[in-house]
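check these tokens.
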Amino acid sequence: MIELYVTVLIIYAFGKLRLASQQNLCDQFSTRQVEELLAFLLLKPKIRHPREKLIAMLWPELDVPHARHRFSIALSRLRRAVRSLGVKFEDYFQTTNDWVAFMPKQPYQFDRDLFVQSFRQALQTDDLIQKEAVLGEALAIFRNHLMEGIYADWCLAEREYLERLRLRALGLAMHCCMQRQAYEDAIEFGYDILHHDPLREEVHCALMHCFHAQQRADLLLRQYKKCRELLQAELRQPPSPGTTALFQKLMADLAKVRLDETTDFKTRQKLILAMNTFLQAADQLQKLLVYGK
């Protein structure tokens, strides 16, 4: 489990960027440039960023003298925002005539860093129960998109990177749930993944496994159809032969279970006929997918 510092400065980056300390909160910044300057420094800590580079990044359309003046104002407003929390600006930020940096001298808590640390800890954990617990902590931290409202390229790249980590965390959590046969939880994680990345064929397959374990042929069939429809609509291609073969096997297994449980002669005859028809059609589909004939 990640241990939290007894913090002085708390940084919330998931959702709108916010700063906090004890009972004080700063969730509004005087200008977009002040917020972007803070965000950039936080995401690239312990680096001495040249003032000229920051100025060009924030005011590319202005001539140098005007941009420098705007930067001095923005830096002053950032200093004021931090101090409004009862925190010493110099404990976290260093500035000279040449550069500016987020150089923390005092403890702080940054939810972005806590999420990444929890995710990496989960990767290094072999025990499934502990792994699932750590993944739960990580996913609880990731409440919204990173620094909503900031659309600079450097922020979009970090946002995309963290979104990929979140999807990996969801996949690992889904695997943990399936290992302990907590299929409802696994299904919830699977749906969350597909909401953000609907073409993940392996997730569709994992969901089919869950529905097979629950003996829900209706949901298994619906998931396969959904996978097929999405791949056809987006990629103009059918599911992979492996996905189709898995679907056939799982449906056949459920049909056999149903047949074993059925004693009524007519029902058994209908079920056998339906199984044969399904397997013949599935076999033909497989041949078309693999051999094209």
About this structure: Residues 1-6, 288-293 have pLDDT under 50 and may be disordered.
